[in-house]
Amino acid sequence: MHISIVNEITSLRKDTLMNKNEILGRWTKQKSEELYGIKNWGGNYFSISEDGEVLVNPYKSTPESAVSLKQIISGVEERGLDMPVLLRFENLLDAQITYINNSFNDAIKKLGYKGKYQGVYPIKVNQQQQVVHEVAKFGERYHHGLEVGSKPELIAALSELNDKEACLICNGYKDSEFIDLGLNAIKMGFKCFFVIEMPGEVNLILDRAEALGIRPNVGIRIKLSSKAGGHWTESGGDRSIFGLNMSQIIEIVDILKTRNMLDTLKLMHYHLGSQIPNIRDIRSAVQEASRVYAELVKEGAPMGYIDLGGGLAVDYDGSNTNFPSSRNYSVEEYCSDIVEAVMVSMDNSGIPHPIIVTESGRALVAYYSILIFNVLDVAKFENYDIPDTFDIEVPEQIINLHEVYKGLNIKNVQECYNDALYYRDIIRDMFNHGHLTLRQRSLSEKIFWSTIYKISKEIKKLKFIPTDLEDLESAIADIYYCNFSVFQSIPDSWAIDQLFPIMPIHRLNEIPDRNGVLADITCDCDGEINKFIDLHDVKNTLPLHVLKPDEDYYLGVFLVGAYQETLGDLHNLFGDTNVVSVRLEKDGTFELVSEIEGDRVEDVLSYVEYNIKDMQVKFRKSAENAVKEGLITPIERREIMTSYDNGLRGYTYYER
Question: Among residues 465, 437, 450, 443, which one has the least CA distance to residue 404?
Fold first, then answer.
């Protein structure tokens, strides 16, 4: 968070003489833009209106095309769909496909590269049918293809890919059925490549090709010595799981020569990792891979395609650094560096410029989806009014804690913090041994937390904050209970500490005068988000607004289009959320193109092997037994069964 904004929030909080309207008058949408960093991570797709609502706009050159997320959510709810909901903006997907392809084509033209660019989308990044369908549709004008890593993914790709000029890259383990599907795709005119991951695959591919009388398109996946930083550093390097080392590459080449199939070797592939934050790692890998490619050409292979895998990062926090949730390069720089590195290496070896293929998935679909949910309740941190005297008898230890509270000032904050912890622990131990009443324990807790609150205010005046006190803000943060499941909708936040931009989608012309963490509605202590993006570091709290009576408060998690839907699980049997696909028009209107209802309770129960009819029969029997025992009446049994059946058909999330 920017220091100037922090100071302003602190100043406004302290100004008790200022009435509410005056405070709101001093807070602007520009301050919210700076506070939440929306211009840094939003890719120019998101902004804030004068009314304090988040706007989305795929048409960057026409500001009048922007549409309010709050307006879209109102339309969704008026149609009967509850929160949480995943919004998919098909125009944003189209815009990102266009952006990446145009950036490569501009670099090719500027540098005088003699080859061309053809991207592929790795289905594993988001395998939902609607996503794959729209990637294939919007990518067709650029011959943007698909990458698959399993038999189900290949079957899905063959149903969605219509462009015979686009590449269909087959990675992963391949059995005979997988290979036969790909060979028949070649026979039908698809540009399908079998990428050899393991030495044993080559003979199986060649044997099936011979049996079907089809000439395959063969690629090889190589292991580079180059490695990249970030979450997925083990994807590259000598000990990466997939790919061939240099000795195995030569072995494959010799097998192809022996079987008179070297002319089928047309593609070389590597994968350095996902979300690569440092451009130097990317360029180093391209240089090494280009040398291997050139040597394969010298071995007599026709080649023609160099597949550089994925890695194009998304700047989730907007810091433009080599932090794992960011990147220190632009898309334009990424494209130019790749094209230049390949071109220089090929020119030095006297090799024709190949078709450059990348498997960018995260950068393609991350902006496409936004998770919206409502806040159900808040556990608000209370700063208690501590009296000078007490109306109950208290032991010496509580009196000592009270003296710490009264004597606290900016010069002794560290000492008072240590003393407060000391007396708190003694008092808790006394209570556990029966030497304190519950009322005395309650009083001590009020004094302790009021002391911590005072310390948190005093340290804002310090130039250097003691290490022990740096994270004090999170200790007194409010807990906002939100209608979603971390494990289902943003599992990377829980599993690998992935940071996503999170912010209110409305009320952004009001000061967010509370600091909070987010808790989902699973009964799990891990169902919490307490790390948030920041331009300079990671924040432990998120600035939020006080809830208004009888008014919903909505938060959005942005850039969740990559991996989150695919990796989500059924923790506490919370299923898929409602999904709404939105098309935005240039005149500022929008259309809800499709609505996919989220999982019902009966759906998720069937996923974990429950038979719904059997459940109804068993519960009906229990209800009838209750009637026989005189616990309920027949009419009450009917009402109970209706409630049970309605519950089975209900949304797994909190319903109004």
Answer: 450
